[in-house]
Amino acid sequence: MSEVLTGKSFVHGDWACAEGAIAAGCRFYAAYPITPATEIAERLAQRLPRVGGKFIQFEDEIGAIASVIGASYSGQKAMTATSGPGISLMLENIGLAVMTEAPCVIVNVMRGGPSTGQPTGGAQGDVMQCRWGTHGDTEIIALAPQSVQEMFDLTIHAFNLSERYRTPVFLMADANIGHLYETLQIPEAKGIEVVNRKRPTEKPGEYQPFSAGPDMVPPMACFGDGYRFYATGLTHNEKGYPDMSVEAQDRLVRRLCDKIRRNADEIERVEEHYTDDCDVLVVAYGITARSALSAVKRAREEGIRAGLLRLVTLWPFPDGRIEALAKGIRGAVVAEMNYGQLVREVERAAMRRVEFLPKLGENPHMPEEILAAIRRASK
What we know:
By secondary structure, this protein is an alpha/beta fold. It contains 13 helices and 15 strands. It has helices spanning about 15-25, 40-45, 60-75, 85-100, 125-130, 150-165, 175-180, 245-260, 265, 285-300, 320-325, 340-350, 365-375; strands spanning about 5-10, 25-30, 55, 75-80, 105-110, 120, 140-145, 170-175, 180-185, 270-275, 280-285, 305-310, 315, 330-335, 355-360. Strand 11, helix 10 (about 285-300) and strand 12 form a beta-alpha-beta unit. The protein is globular and about 70 Å long. The model has no long low-confidence stretch (mean pLDDT about 95).
């Protein structure tokens, strides 16, 4: 197996995610096996040693995410992958990654829940878990691929965002995409944009590990770089030392949130189809968006001016774009493989009730189901 893979392959989404991680520079992966994300671990167990990286299977997901944070602070681009039950175990340490500003990527190949649920069934039921699961005030970046190609491309993008903003980034793939086989085109390395974290330029004695400039993202020294610093999950000052004052908490948490909030326009990604003149707006993401596009095209053939807003970025949520589109429409449809999560965000941003089309179980929406909802919303 060669170090660098390029060209066209017919593979499934989990395989593409693994190759995207390698292309982004990931050289440390830790995980505990869990359906439907295990194939990412299997692929990286083979590939990482051949590119100078490390794969470690841990005793549980808690150990896996803890080691990812440690690897990040050791200078490695690091990733883990799991599904909803594993995310539940990781949440405390995900909060630690936010607080210590440890760049890393967390892949959630979503399956049906709650609890053990449907290990082999696809779902989109964890989008609120990734946003609000950890305690305290946080801002989260989460991406939702809709194809095998995007499992590759958005994994790279997730690493770039994590390095740029020094934060954990989620890749939220429903199991249907993780196990879907499609054509993947891997470009030459020179055609892939790779972002690396900002490093300090100060002398070791002058370095303050959590002191940031106007971009609110501190340069990151890593263990072994010759800088002596302290990293803690406690509220801390710019030197990294615990500081329980009101002023330190206010200053730190505002910066952690604002480095995402103030750059939301740069981070947010949507894909639009026929939205310039639509009367009915369909909002979808992941596997559901594929059926939604087919339904929108069929609706337009019937004379219904439907449009699709596909959410590539789930968080930050594109409030502004939905608010703008909602001003000129007659109705809206939200299709999700859950019983009501992002639909509430759409209603809040659009300031109106929408036609909600839930789906529970492993089978994605059929275009006919979404088309029927478009017809109802157009009346």
